[in-house]
Amino acid sequence: MKPFGYLRPASVAEAVRAGAGHPGARFLGGGTNLVDLMKLGVETPGLLIDVSRLPLDHVTTTPEGGVRIGATVRNSDLAAHPAVRTRYPALSQALLAGASGQLRNAATTGGNLLQRTRCPYFQDISKPCNKRTPGAGCPARESSHRDLAVLGYSDRCVAVGPSDMAVAFAALDATVRLHGPEGERTVSVTDFHRLPGESPDQDTTIRPGELITEVVLPPGPDNAVSLYRKARDRASYAFALASVAVVLDVRDGRVEHVALAFGGLAHQAWRARAAEEVLRGAPATHDTFVRAVHAELDAARPLRGNAFKVDLARNLAVGALTELTARVASPGTPRT
Fold first, then answer.
1. Three-state secondary structure along the chain?
2. pLDDT above 90 covers what percent of the chain?
3. 242 bridge partner residues
4. For 298-321, what is each residue's pLDDT tens digit?
5. pTM of the predicted model, to two decimals?
6. Which of 37, 152, 175, 303 could bridge across to 266 with cysteines, CB 3.0–4.6 Å?
């Protein structure tokens, strides 16, 4: 690990000034991903700015009925919070599916959103990688890509985003609040992470010196139910081959509201807008669910070794929609 400076700022403003003044700086929360990448030589920050002691560890309800989540809230605390478990069960489920208990006790909300891909070529500095070194190439396209993207990739990068939490946030219409040298701004979580395009080294739309301060969840539809489902190679501590977060409200046998997002398929949490368009106002039936998910995943471009992901994601989504519809239709069934 290369030598680096360390700073523990006393305020958000001081943290932002330090980040803006040191182009090679990184903000440190739990360090569960950043420190690993530093050990591998993938990340080589000249300065670590420790924001873990800043007053950003709140989970509070908004007057409208939503929830504000501070950037340094630990994943384990967020998953267990009563407001999250009752109002946003898909988020709690995603967090609990994301890592071991020890890691959840250390990882933070902001850090989870900023974690980087687990593509083996990105993590191995002896291999070329456009995400790590722009212009170096992407050997994953022709080599080992079983776990990598089928949607939204480019000829420069086929990596996938690793965050379970971001998938739930995408389905819940979360927004990310940022504080930077030019002041505060808000961006939807679906716009926060980028597709690789011509610049795969840029994971997010965050600007130099900006610090995530909180994530805001709007109130959901009164009668909506939600869940998160994940397929992985082993039952614990594995990243998603495919995952899905669904928010659903069914009235009189028809879909009143739906939000659906996929994980493990693209560089970002993939909000399934085409599927939602088919579902909205349609009968809540198995045939409708299959048709809707087909409409979304027909855009997939699997590589030689990962075509199975398309069927896997399709089955997860149809199963989740079917399960939630049955839950709505059964009086007395818990809606969470």
1. CCCCEEECCCCHHHHHHHHHHCCCEEEECCCCCHHHHHHHCCCCCCEEEECCCCCCCCEEECCCCCEEEECCCEHHHHHHCHHHHHHCHHHHHHHHCCCCHHHHHHCEHHHHHHCCCCCHHHHCCCCCCCCCCCCCCCHHHCCCCCCCCCCCCECCECCCCCCHHHHHHHHCCCEEEEEECCEEEEEEHHHHECCCCCCCCCCECCCCCCEEEEEEECCCCCCCEEEEEEECCCCCCCCCCEEEEEEEEEECCEEEEEEEEEECCCCCCEECHHHHHHHCCCECCHHHHHHHHHHHHCCCCCCCCCCHHHHHHHHHHHHHHHHHHHHHHCCCCCCC
2. 92
3. 231
4. 999 999 999 999 999 999 999 999
5. 0.96
6. 152
| Lowest-confidence region among 141-155, 204-218, 225-239 | 225-239
Q: At what angle do helices 164-171 and 89-96 cross, to 10 degrees?
A: 170
Q: Is 3 exposed, middle or buried (0-12, 13-18, 19+ CB in 10 A)?
A: exposed
Per residue in 74-123, pLDDT tens? Answer: 999 999 999 999 999 999 999 999 888 899 999 999 999 999 999 999 99
| Assigned token pair, 333 | 């069934």
- Tokens 């932002």 belong to 16
The amino acid present at 223, given as its one-letter code, is N
CB of 43 within 8 A of CB of 26? yes
What distance lies between CA 5 and its chain's CA centroid?
29
Taking residue 305's Cβ as centre, other Cβ atoms within 10 Å add up to: 14
Q: Which two tokens stand for residue 274?
A: 């085409």
AA identity, residue 108: T
Nearest to 60 by CA among 76, 78, 47: 78
Residue matched to tokens 């879909």: 255
> Tokens 């395009």 — which residue?
197
Question: For the chain, what is the mean pLDDT?
Answer: 95
Residues 6+ apart with CB under 8 A from 103: 32, 75
Confidence of residue 333 (pLDDT cuts 50, 70, 90): low
